[in-house]
Amino acid sequence: MIEQRARVLVIGGGIAGCSLLYHITRLGWRDVVLVEKGELTSGSTWHAAGLCTQLNASLNVTKLLMTSMKLYRSLEAETGQAVSLHQNGSLRLATDPDRLDEFHHRLGIARYLGLEAAVVGPGEVRERWPLARVEDVLGALWTPSDGHVDPSSVTQALAAGARASGAAIHRHTRVLGIKRRADAWLVRTTRGDVEAEVVVNAAGQWAREVGAMVGVRLPIVPLQHQYVVTEAITDLHGRTTELPVLRDPDGSFDVREEGDGLLVGPFEPQPLTWAVELRPDRGSDARRRAARPGAHGRRREPGRRRLRLPRAGGEALGEGLPPLGCRHLGGLDAALGRTRAPRRVGQGRIQEACRAPAPAPPHGNEVVLHDGRVVSYVLSGGHGPTVGADLAFAYLPTELAAPGTQLAVEVLGETVGACVVADPLFDPENRRLRG
Fold first, then answer.
1. Looking at residue 189, what is its pLDDT?
2. Is 211 a residue whose pLDDT tops 50?
3. How many Å apart are CA 433 and CA 435, to the nearest integer?
4. Which pLDDT tens digit goes with each residue over 318-371?
5. What single DSSP character describes residue 149?
6. Across-strand partners of 246?
7. pTM of the predicted structure, to 2 decimals
8. How confident is the model over 127-155, as a mean pLDDT?
9. pLDDT over 70 (residue 80)
10. Are 6 and 32 in contact (CB under 8 A)?
11. Number of Cβ atoms within 10 Å of the Cβ of 368
């Protein structure tokens, strides 16, 4: 039988639901329950690539990703469940100057948070990834502590940790309905009713159906996704270290080692939906039936009927696949043309916030330095055309906040001088404010 009351009831046993359960038990919540209509990870978690990247364009997201990696490093020792963590690093390719500028910008976030990262040249890309073609590569963002995990194993470890802290997990327990009472939710399941203070919808691709039980329309539609696993590749034989995860943001794909071959994951620009009209009382079998065979084939580029994949002694065929935007893989003949974004050049000099010539105006997340030491980061910034200067805003330690204090800001990898000012330069006497 299922518990009749719970402080929190989580619906969905994928990595999101099990992670939530794990973390709230770490906060001291004990009266918590998770229900899963099938097995844990039987939704979209089990076939995820499990890639772990940390350096994001957002400082806060980067902190969150670093926390996740720290958790993966400790889960096995804590729970006894292996997570298959591989910290083999990652290379993110840049094939135009704008992308390279973006990588230099992200280095400021890495430096502020203490995350090891570097922008490397095409030669080092080829050295670290011998199968790569680097003719049009300008550089890459190298993050040595990135890698990948097994998502199913991580989920099982999170579930084990939550159970050890008092959480209850019920598999093969389908939610039939949800009703609101005066001070709680009544959740009907195939194992009985549960009264919960909080209900969490972590049902993944079935979240829309769960939301509909309480009159909430979630704009969630399952999409068909594809990945390719190659056969054994001769060039990978005898390696003593694993290749880093390789990403091409403009080609929109990633690739990592899988056994003696490669696992290639493209991101389709025009994905196909899957079982849009699925009813709440129908399960994964119905969803499989709703996925029409060969649907991807209709998007196939005219005349292209096979996908060449590097392997020992021949080629692997991928019938019915749409064109993949995978470049820079030696032996992988699946490249498509793309439009290159125009070069954007920042105008002006940083005169107020940065008094030395800067490659572009600051716009957020650049590190602020004092005597070579990181003391803060830029919250927002940009060019001020009224005063002909670039402006940056940041919270500073009290001892450095006096007007005239000399600082420095890293902009796209270059350090430029900065000066603290007390008054807004664009309207120091508030004339424009008064009208």
1. 96
2. yes
3. 5
4. 333 333 344 454 433 222 222 233 222 222 222 334 444 567 888 888 889 999
5. -
6. 91, 255
7. 0.74
8. 94
9. yes
10. yes
11. 24
Neighbour order of strands in the sheet with 373-377? 373-377, 367-370, 406-411, 414-419
In this structure, the number of other CB atoms found within 10 A of the CB of residue 219 comes to 6
Q: Which residues contact 150 (CB under 8 A, 6 or more apart)?
A: 50, 83, 84
What tokens appear for 162 in the block? 């939550």
Distance CA 379, CA 86 (A): 34
What pLDDT is stored for residue 364 in this prediction?
Answer: 84
Distance, in Å, from the CA atom of 372 to the CA atom of 415, rounded to the nearest integer, reads 10
Instruction: Tell me the DSSP string of 218-253.
Output: -----B----EE----GGGTT-SSPPPEEEETTTTE
> Over pLDDT 70: what percentage of the chain?
79
Half-sphere exposure of 148 (CA within 13 A, CB side): 20
d(CA 394, CA 247): 32
- 386 residue type, one letter: T
Check whether 96 has a pLDDT greater than 80. Answer: yes
Lookup result for tokens 């995978």: 326
- Which residues share a beta bridge with 423? none
* Beta strands, E only, 12-79: 32-35, 51-52
Q: Judge whether 348 and 383 are in contact, CB under 8 Å.
A: yes
Report in angstroms the alpha-carbon separations of 56 from 62, 103, 108: 5, 10, 11
Nearest residue to 409 (alpha-carbon basis) of 352, 362, 345: 362
Beta strand ranges found along 238-350 (DSSP E): 245-248, 253-258, 261-266, 310-311, 314-315
